[in-house]
Write a structure and sequence with these properties.
CATH architecture: Alpha-Beta Barrel
Number of strands: 8
Distance between the termini: 14 Å
Structural class: alpha/beta
Number of domains: 1
CATH class: Alpha Beta
Largest sheet: 8 strands, parallel, barrel
Bound molecules: 2-phosphoglycolic acid
CATH superfamily: Aldolase class I
Shape: globular
Strand order of the largest sheet: 1-2-3-4-5-6-7-8
CATH topology: TIM Barrel
Radius of gyration: 17 Å
Amino acid sequence: MNKKLRQAVIAGNWKMNKTRPEAKALIEELKPIAEKAACGVVICVPYTNLETAVALTAGTNIKVGAENCHFEKSGAFTGEVSADMLKEVGVEYVIIGHSERRQYFGETDVTVNKRTKAALAAGLNVIVCVGEMLDEREKGITDEIVAMQTKVALLGVTAEQLKNVIIAYEPVWAIGTGKTASAEQANEVCSLIRATVAKLYTQADADALTIQYGGSMNPKNAAELLAQPDVDGGLIGGASLKANDFGVLLEAASI
Ligand code: PGA
């Protein structure tokens, strides 16, 4: 009902996929497809593909994002990349707090908050990921978990900075598993996130916030998910690696 107040954004999350020549080929295939999209189009790619992606998408409607960044500006953090470094390369978006970072790399709500604030301070748009594990859903604590993740992620983020935030609701049990949340389940949690944000800021701020669904979104289920009143696009893993599949999702989000 308030969908007109915000932009639907489809963001690809390539994860640890695509060599440089493969990235080049996929982006070239994607360009004419993305051109027709009325929604926001973002591709989040591995660090090694950022420069290639920024160069190849210059002057197009495709925005480039990274998949993580560190919260310090510089220093002795072997293996990490700062938000300023991303900005310097021409990156406009960054994913923070993806469940794979939380599960495999010790990311916590607190580090998600630090990274979110650092990325916003550097002038990046941030896609903050939240979502419950399967046992949390089964125990009936999805709402508490997701509300808590949202609140901690946004601690110290100003209303002005919130304009550069997208929240991606990604139930962990639906990521890369082929299991999708039903359209109703997805909408229910996206709506809870919006209500949580309305309490932290204002209803108008919450209405303007893009809230994506992610987790096995594909050409078959996208239209139903994206038609939900509180689902404003998607964060797409597997289906972002094929230009035609990604194109179907862009079309579904462009209505
Ligand atoms: P998937 O991944 O679409 O492959 O489930 C989504 C994500 O991890 O962002």
